Amino acid sequence: MLAAPVLPAPEPWRPVFAPPFAPPVTPGFASCAAVGGLLGIGFATHPDTGNDLVMVVSHDGHGLFDAVTGEKIARERDPEPEDDTPDSTADLTCPGLGPIAGTRVHIAGLYGGGLHLTAVGGWGLEVVHPAWPHERVLLTHGSGMPHREPHGDGWWHIFNSHYSELRTIGFSPSGHTLAVATSSDLTLWTRAG
């Protein structure tokens, strides 16, 4: 595990956020959206487009991203005190915003909760700690056992959390989005449209 380099997620996955520089240093590698003080994330579905949405909860409020385009579509800098973090509710939810206003979104991260670790098509996620406290995120396909097949063929080391604390990883309920959230950023991959 220590020798396995970070690789781009395989087809059909593609990074959502474009690199902040041009041209990309390495095509296929994921860039992130900076979110200082990130506490957790949750998934919802856009009522008009059907796209996966990712709600981000941080010390600076709440944000909502389209998980296909990467566009930030809503922002709430000052949520009500009783709803600013998910730990104020028994079900770890925060109020939706923008197109999902009026709903509540389950948030996984610093305060607990969890996201899907498997997705339709035989995809899976695993966190390993070969150099604790730095965590590595593995994407698997098929057997789900990263030790059975060679690296890059059945499993991929797609993220190394060496600079920030890992908050949560997971697939959206649709299985079309893969998210990695740390205390400082959000990285997304999609296999939609």
Number of helices, where a helix is a run of at least 4 consecutive DSSP H or I residues? 0
Structural Rg: 16 Å
**What is the percentage of strand-forming residues?**
35-45%
**Biggest beta-sheet profile:** 5 strands, antiparallel
- Unreliable segments of 5+ consecutive residues: 21-25
**What's the pLDDT, averaged over the residues?**
91
- Helix vs. strand class: mainly beta
How many E-type strands? 16
Q: Looking at the structure, what is the overall shape?
A: globular
What pattern of helices and strands is seen along the backbone? EEEEEEEEEEEEEEEE
* Terminal Cα span: 33 Å
Q: Tell me the helix content.
A: under 10%
Question: Which labels suit this protein?
Answer:
five-stranded antiparallel beta sheet; 16 strands; globular
Describe the structure.
This protein has 193 residues and is mainly beta. The protein is built from no helices and 16 strands. It is globular, with a radius of gyration of 16 Å. About 3% of the residues have low confidence.
